[in-house]
């Protein structure tokens, strides 16, 4: 009889261990790699012969909720995509502005490139509230084939 209870206890312990071990939070998502702008520096190209443009991107760093208009802060991801499958695209400037239009941060010291079909990301943490509800980015870019710009 005692052996039977030992078996029951062992089985229950195994079940408890399995249940709690399955509750550990394991992420199947890849980690976001931060773009190293310094490794992409471009200095020896004549940008005036390339098609150039500028893209405006609003950034939703927080939203309002509940009747008192309380802000709910968000982590924001900015994706910059080269849509050409053949040519590099060049970023001439990447600037982050707040609600009042003041420059919060300039991400580039020198022009940089994106390989064909490459995407680079900028992540604005939810704890970074400098941009406010009307935060935005301006991207100045250049491409060899004017049919392709950058998508943000």
Task: Sum this structure up briefly.
The protein is mostly beta strands and 152 residues long. The chain is built from 1 helix and 10 strands, in the order H-E-E-E-E-E-E-E-E-E-E. The chain is elongated, with a radius of gyration of 25 Å.
Order of helices and strands: HEEEEEEEEEE
CATH class: Mainly Beta
Unreliably modeled segments: 15-33
Q: Assign the CATH topology.
A: Immunoglobulin-like
Provide the residue-averaged pLDDT.
Answer: 75
> Mind summarizing the main beta sheet?
5 strands, antiparallel
Query: Shape from CA axes?
Result: elongated
Written account of the structure:
This protein has a single domain, classed as Immunoglobulin-like, CATH 2.60.40. Helices cover 14% and strands 36% of the residues. It has 1 helix and 10 strands, in the order αββββββββββ. Strands 1, 5, 6, 7 and 9 form a 5-stranded antiparallel β-sheet that branches. A 3-stranded antiparallel β-sheet has the order 8-4-10, with no helix packed on it. A hairpin with a 4-residue loop joins β2 (62-65) and β3. The model is unreliable at 15-33 (pLDDT under 50).
